[in-house]
Amino acid sequence: MGLHYENSDSGNSNKVKLGLFSDKISSIGSKILYNEGHGCPDNFEKYTTQDVNNKEWRTKNNNCGQTSPNSDTYYDTSISVRYKQRFTASKDVKREAVAAMNIALDLQNRGKTDKAMKVFQHALALDPSHADILTAFGEFLEWHVHDIVKADHMYHIALENSPEHSRALQNRKRTAPIVEEIDQARFNRVDQKRTQLYTIPHNHPGLRRAKREAYFAHIYHTNAIEGNTLTLAQTRSIVETRLAVGGKSLREQNEVLGLDSALSYINSTLVGRVGRLTLQDILDVHTRVLGHVDPLEAGIFRTTQVYVGDFTPPPACDLREHMNQLIEWLNSEEGLALHPIEFAALAHYRLVAIHPFYDGNGRTSRLLMNLILMQAGFPPVSIEVSDRLTYYETLQQANDGDIRPFIRFISKCAERTLDEYLSVTSEESDVILPSTIHRNKFKPSERIIVSDSDFDDESDLEDSDNNNIYDSIDKKRDYLHNKS
After folding, report:
1. What are 360-379's pLDDT values in tens digits?
2. How many CB atoms lie within 10 A of CB 466?
3. Which positions fall inside the Fido domain (predicted)?
4. DSSP state of 462
5. CA distance 51 to 37
């Protein structure tokens, strides 16, 4: 269905169709020659959804003549470490950083905690890989700020840069078991809240309405994180009416249509399916995410090198190998044995680190994360636009070698989502549901993915809950075990 812009200033409607090329995706050629000399041979061909099962093509373009890196392990961030452009401070800057550290230590000893914190942060900004500074800052956080989780992170990064650092090793030996207990306690708490959510009747009016409203909120937030300027009310209007809103670019509005299409596909096809997740599934999701915005690149691997800040994703020649490793891990017993939040966060990070597409990597990664969570019986997580800074900071920490802050961030988002649902469905709740307020005002209850196409009338809401979704992980494990 086309999206049109209604010009209210004229007597006759001036209709501008959005997603002009969305119907032409299937007609795109299966191969486009690439010969621009960006690290791959001249006969390297653009990878499309039609090549997934083409054995001859896979063999021909497997490594582009380059040596393949080893497979990544579950907490291994070797993709990012391998391609990261590490910052190396000059000798003068290193001396200045050490001097700042000594000033911070002096302030610490004199009890001036706030000033010491700022000077430690300045020292790390000058030389973020200095093991002595990282360790000293970690000790400050542990003993004076009483933040053992952040302290353990500092020791971890110190050991990433200097594996034999004796103080960091000694400190990490002390803090790591405690931090692991803290992380596990959060997982246990989240599991209890998930169980509590599933005791609520599926026809609970608050739960039904929250699911309906949250579909639009998820589209709004995941687009807003990428810089989309549409409001929640405008996002909802586009999804419901397929009409463009005035004063906003057609690209931004087509991004809404793309996510609506991708979410509908995931809810109707992938969530309840038993069996292996395939590369084609990820390409199909990306095809829908980008199909209304850039159909020529939708569902197609990039063919040139891209750069993301100080991180350089793998070259185009290596994308197939990294993606195949990701798919194998997503379907492995080792991956499925992880806690679902842990598993989902790692899947998100690994896909976004590979960065296989020119555009839409973040949106596709968040959709993959929520697919895994929904299959495990969790409500999908919205990373709100207000969380954008923390989201990117924890991704950067993963690039630096410690992915645990990102897992904790996703765990906090999941717990917040569960808390909001439990609050909405509580008999004592005073929460005002979004449909009873002005649409420009966003409430926390607007968060969970359920395809809006399932809501033709109120009686359809109960059937949309997918009561057996939380069994999907167990079924997938049984499937893999029987196949082996």
Report:
1. 999 999 999 999 999 999 99
2. 17
3. 277-412
4. G
5. 22
Whether 348 is catalytic is no
- Could you list the mean pLDDT of each consecutive 10-residue stretch along the chain, which spans 484 residues? 38 38 31 33 39 40 36 50 68 97 98 98 97 98 98 98 97 98 98 95 88 89 98 97 96 98 96 94 98 97 93 95 98 96 98 98 98 95 96 96 97 94 72 40 38 42 37 49 55
CB 381 within 8 A of CB 410: yes
Find the catalytic residue in 130, 146, 355, 438: 355
Could you say which DSSP state residue 69 is in? Answer: P
Q: What are the phi and psi torsion angles at 243 (to 5°)?
A: -105, 140
- Shortest CA distance to 472 belongs to which of 224, 274, 219? 274
Cα gap 239→248, rounded to integer Å: 15
Q: How far is CA 447 from the centre of its chain?
A: 16
Residue indicated by tokens 């004229």: 10
Q: What is the dihedral of CA 281, 285, 287, 293, to 10 degrees?
A: -170
As given in the structure block, the two tokens for residue 163 are 């594996």
* Beta-carbon contacts of residue 348 (< 8 Å; ≥ 6 apart): 365, 366, 368, 369, 410
Binding-site residues for ATP, in ranges, read 359-366, 391-392, 399
Q: Which long-range contacts (CB under 8 A, 24 or more apart) does 339-342 make?
A: 339/187, 340/372, 340/373, 340/375, 340/376, 340/377, 340/378, 340/473, 341/187, 341/190, 341/373, 341/378, 341/407, 341/410, 341/411, 341/414, 342/187, 342/407
Q: Which structure tokens are listed for 307?
A: 């750069």
Q: Is 435 exposed, middle or buried (0-12, 13-18, 19+ CB in 10 A)?
A: exposed
Q: Which amino acid is at 317?
A: C
Between helices 361-375 and 472-483, what is the axis angle to 10°?
90
Report the candidate in 340, 342, 421 with the shortest Cα–Cα distance to residue 377. Answer: 340
CATH numbers and ranges of domains, the chain: 91-176 (1.25.40.10), 188-483 (1.10.3290.10)
pTM: 0.76
